[in-house]
């Protein structure tokens, strides 16, 4: 992560670029995913002035009166990831019952002895 300090002033124009993990071409697979991304930005009192979604990356020109570009992108990426999870083949694989997830069973593992001995 860069230690470059960024200055944010409410109302300024910001040109943002984001790339998919391993540059996988998933952005054009489901149009509702890009809609979720843009909707989340607009929900944060942000003007989305221009955008282009390419298969493996995106460019967005925004102006925000409240949130920093970093916070906006975090929230938009979470919205995108949630919708992508709903459409992904991994989710279908889990829902098919071929793989039984063991997450959140509520049981703590049994440990013999005590720690620090």
CATH-derived topology? Alpha-Beta Plaits
CATH architecture classification: 2-Layer Sandwich
Largest sheet: 3 strands, antiparallel
What is the distance, rounded to the nearest whole angstrom, between the alpha carbons of the first and last residues?
39 Å
> Helix amount, in percent?
25-40%
Strand order in the largest sheet: 1-3-2
CATH C-level class is: Alpha Beta
SSE succession: EHEEHH
Domain module tally: 1
| Strand-pairing-aware structural class | alpha+beta
In DSSP terms (H or I, runs of 4 or more residues), the helix count works out at: 3
What is the strand content? 15-25%
Fourth CATH level, the homologous superfamily: Transposase IS200-like
Give the overall shape, derived from the CA principal axes: elongated
Briefly characterize the structure.
The protein has helices spanning 31-43, 69-87, 89-95; strands at 13-19, 46-53, 57-64. The protein is α+β, with helices and mostly antiparallel strands.
Structural features, described:
This protein has 117 residues and is α+β, with helices and mostly antiparallel strands. The chain has one domain (13-95): Transposase IS200-like (Alpha-Beta Plaits). It is built from three helices and three strands. The protein has a three-stranded antiparallel β-sheet with strand order 1-3-2, with helices on one face. Helix 1 (31-43) runs antiparallel to helix 2. The longest helix has 19 residues, at 69-87. The radius of gyration is 20 Å and the shape is elongated. The chain starts with 12 loop residues before the first strand and ends in a 22-residue tail after the last helix.
